[in-house]
Amino acid sequence: VQLQASGGGLVQVGGSLRVSCAASGFTISSYSMGWFRQTPGKEREFVAAISWSGGNQYYADSVKGRFTISRDNAKNTVFLQMNSLKPEDTAVYSCAAGLNYLRTYYQAEEYDYWGQGTQVTVSS
């Protein structure tokens, strides 16, 4: 079982970036998927999640209206489109998978699988 995040990089303030999370060893169609981020010295922070059916999306207040989570079950991949990026969005972004419906979607302990992160740096 593996989740591989990619697509991070350096972007200027106000710019956009799309990060991807490709799953292998299992199919994500039965899993709710989430994105979390972390910076050195800080706790991991919930960013966004999408239910296993794709019918519901959840966002942290700090990214609502700027970020969009989506999924492509045929490609076994989840995406996070990030627009209007701010310096405070700088972090390592990691994806996670939790079986079926989750109770809250924003608590890390609800997720079963985690992937390596991808660095996103927003320069001012």
Structural class call reads mainly beta
Largest sheet: 7 strands, mixed
| Quaternary class | single chain
How many individual β-strands? 11
Strand percent estimate: over 45%
Mean pLDDT: 97
Distance between the termini: 37 Å
Helical fraction: under 10%
Helix-strand pattern: EEEEEEEEEEE
Q: How does the overall form come out from the CA principal axes?
A: globular
Low-pLDDT parts are none
> Number of helical runs?
0
Our Rg estimate from Cα atoms comes to 13 Å
Question: Short description, anyone?
Answer:
By secondary structure, the protein is mostly beta strands. It contains no helices and eleven strands. Strands 2, 4, 5, 6, 9, 10 and 11 form a seven-stranded mixed beta sheet that branches. A four-stranded antiparallel beta sheet has the order 1-3-8-7, with no helix packed on it.
Task: Describe the protein.
The chain has 124 residues and is mostly beta strands. It is 0% helix and 51% strand. The protein contains no helices and 11 strands. The protein has strands at residues 2-6, 9-12, 17-24, 31-38, 45-50, 57-59, 67-72, 77-82, 91-99, 113-114, 118-123. Strands 2, 4, 5, 6, 9, 10 and 11 form a 7-stranded mixed sheet that branches. The chain has a 4-stranded antiparallel sheet with strand order 1-3-8-7, with no helix packed on it. A hairpin with a 6-residue loop joins strand 5 and strand 6 (57-59). It is globular and about 40 Å long. The N and C termini lie far apart (37 Å).
